[in-house]
Design a protein that fits this description.
- The protein contains one helix and 37 strands.
- The chain has 418 residues and is mainly beta.
- It folds into two domains: 190 residues, Neuraminidase, CATH 2.120.10.30; 183 residues, no CATH class.
- It is elongated, with a radius of gyration of 26 Å.
């Protein structure tokens, strides 16, 4: 620990370190066989299992009861808010099951070769066709298909309706896509923690999936807006170790990472004669005034939560390029080689900046802020990447252009959450 850390802070640091070492409560549970569809009836999860041809009901602790559904094919399932039955997709039909007894009630034929999944919307049922990603809009009142649309997802496996949007899993790509149900225009996508996805369902605002890689039923963190979906939150920390010349008489300015949708940056964990403040352009920095300290070294940590954020905008509504760039490093545990890759940044109004490059699609303009990248620096266009600067007299009206890069001994380590 640095020499200027007091005994009380050391005790607190040991306590915090011990607490962060405690394992987080694991949610979800293993599922048997070859699981496919997933639903929730308000009290229990339901899922189909293909190899044993069984329909399972399970509580939140993983206690299961199986029902054999016989010599037929069942894929995606969904609990109906209209009649209280469990609906299961099959070949050219879907079946209805009693959620209390697990018994089949009836069979309804539909002109869809294989119903991979079902979703209940306002007055209609969305039927996802396995193998081509087409969605058929079925009227339960007339028993007819009203219209259909193409998602373009050849590996589409299940479908759900949530907050006025259609959510569809993409088989072996580890992606969950969001669509507008009237136009079938893609409005976003979410990178899941599993590459092999099947069923999905929403329970009290939480997204749950069937993870076929790990054979688990588990929740997936996500947040969303009209133009983005964020997921896969991972906790990290940056450890800074800085040494400087004892004769230095200038104020050192250490640039900290910027927060955004893709990363939330906490407060530096330090004490002593050091200040955390902002430059005029909003850059958060640590000020080291050598004359105030007997030490010529400083060590501190900065907690960071990373997310994967996928953005999709219409072309006319897309963010515009700004005169700053973000400098990114790969998220790998260990010492950081301070050679970040700098990319353009885009911004729309008062929304957080979005890293480029942008991808032009038929459906609009896409940006990806990956959970595997950390924006270590945000600097003006034309500037060279630097983390430690210096200035004779610091003034909060200054920005990075008013500072000069300082040659100090600097090591930065990226640590994973234990």
């Amino acid at each position: 620990m640095p020499a200027n850390y007091g005994p009380a802070l050391c005790t607190l640091w040991i306590l915090l370190t011990a607490l962060t070492g405690l394992p987080a409560e694991e949610r979800g549970f293993p599922v048997p066989g070859v699981p496919y569809g997933l639903a929730h009836d308000g009290n229990h999860f339901w899922f189909t299992e293909l190899s044993g041809r069984k329909l399972y009901r399970t509580d939140s602790r993983g206690r299961m009861q199986a029902y054999f559904y016989g010599n037929r094919y069942l894929y995606g399932i969904r609990f109906s808010p209209f009649d209280g039955y469990i609906y299961a997709g099959s070949r050219g039909a879907f079946y209805r099951y009693n959620p209390i007894t697990g018994k089949q009630m009836d069979r309804l034929s539909v002109p869809v070769e294989r119903v991979a999944g079902l979703a209940f919307g306002p007055g209609v049922i969305y039927l996802l066709e396995k193998g081509n990603g087409k969605v058929y809009v079925y009227s339960p009142d007339s028993g007819r298909i009203l219209y259909s649309g193409d998602t373009g997802l050849k590996e589409a496996r299940d479908i759900a309706f949530y907050r006025g949007q259609l959510w569809i899993t993409e088989g072996d790509q580890g992606m969950i896509h969001r669509f507008d149900p009237s136009s079938f225009r893609r409005t976003g996508r979410l990178e899941a923690p599993s590459k092999t996805l099947r069923g999905l369902t929403f329970v009290k605002g939480e997204l749950w999936i069937i993870d076929r890689d790990q054979l688990r039923l588990e929740p997936v963190f996500f947040s969303e807006g009209p133009n983005f979906i964020a997921g896969q939150e991972q906790n990290r920390s940056l450890l800074y170790r800085i040494s400087w010349d004892r004769n230095l008489d200038r104020t050192l300015v250490v640039v900290l990472p910027a927060s955004g949708r893709g990363q939330r940056v906490g407060s530096p964990m330090l004490s002593g004669n050091f200040d955390v403040t902002y430059l005029s352009d909003g850059t958060r920095v640590v000020l080291i005034r050598p004359g105030r300290s007997t030490s010529s070294k400083l060590e501190f940590r900065v907690p960071i939560a990373l997310r994967s954020v996928d953005y999709l905008f219409s072309r006319e509504d897309s963010p515009e390029l700004i005169n700053r760039k973000g400098c990114f490093i790969d998220v790998k545990q260990g010492i950081i080689e301070q050679k970040p890759v700098c990319r353009p940044l885009y911004k729309k109004g008062q929304e957080p900046a979005i890293p480029g490059p942008r991808e032009i699609l038929d459906s609009g303009v896409r940006f990806l802020d990956s959970v595997h990248d950390l924006e270590l620096l945000r600097i003006p266009e034309g500037s060279n990447p630097a983390i430690v600067y210096s200035v004779d007299d610091f003034d909060p009206s200054q920005d990075l252009d008013d500072l000069r890069p300082e040659n100090v001994q600097l090591e930065i380590f990226l640590e994973t959450d234990r």
